[in-house]
């Protein structure tokens, strides 16, 4: 049986370090809102929820927004992961298909129809926020 030199296991350390750094960069890019959103450009959209994606890594809502010409455009409303939403009091039924909602948040880069939702206003007057504001209701 051939013997492996004692220092051979240390020879792979630079390779493992490089792989770890690359994976760390990928994870950081994935979580960087500034890659998908203009964090200095907050806007509001209003429309009807068409689809709910209640799953990690980020809960998403697909909202039909009426354009000025009368046509509709589907916007992606991205929020946080399930744990953060649940800790903020959200459930699968907080936003449902068919709900009319107004969403305020960071707008998508380069005019893309997406928004990082921060504040959600519902037809009944209730407001749900993800960043420190308490949930309120007009009832």
Structure described in brief:
The chain has a domain of 92 residues: Beta Barrel (OB fold (Dihydrolipoamide Acetyltransferase, E2P)). Helices cover 24% and strands 37% of the residues. The chain contains 4 helices and 6 strands; from the N terminus they run H-H-H-E-E-E-H-E-E-E.
Features:
single chain; 139 residues; alpha+beta; OB fold (Dihydrolipoamide Acetyltransferase, E2P); 5-stranded mixed barrel; 4 helices; 6 strands; 24% helix; 37% strand; disordered C terminus
Written description of the protein model:
The protein has a domain at 38-129: OB fold (Dihydrolipoamide Acetyltransferase, E2P). Helix content is 24%, strand content 37%. It has four helices and six strands. The chain has helices at 8-11, 13-31, 33-36, 82-87; strands at 37-53, 60-66, 72-78, 100-108, 114-122, 127-129. Strands 1-2-3-5-4 form a five-stranded mixed beta barrel. Strand 5 (114-122) and strand 6 form a beta hairpin. The longest helix has 19 residues, at 13-31. The chain is globular and about 75 Å long. Mean pLDDT is 82; it is low at 21-30 and 132-139.
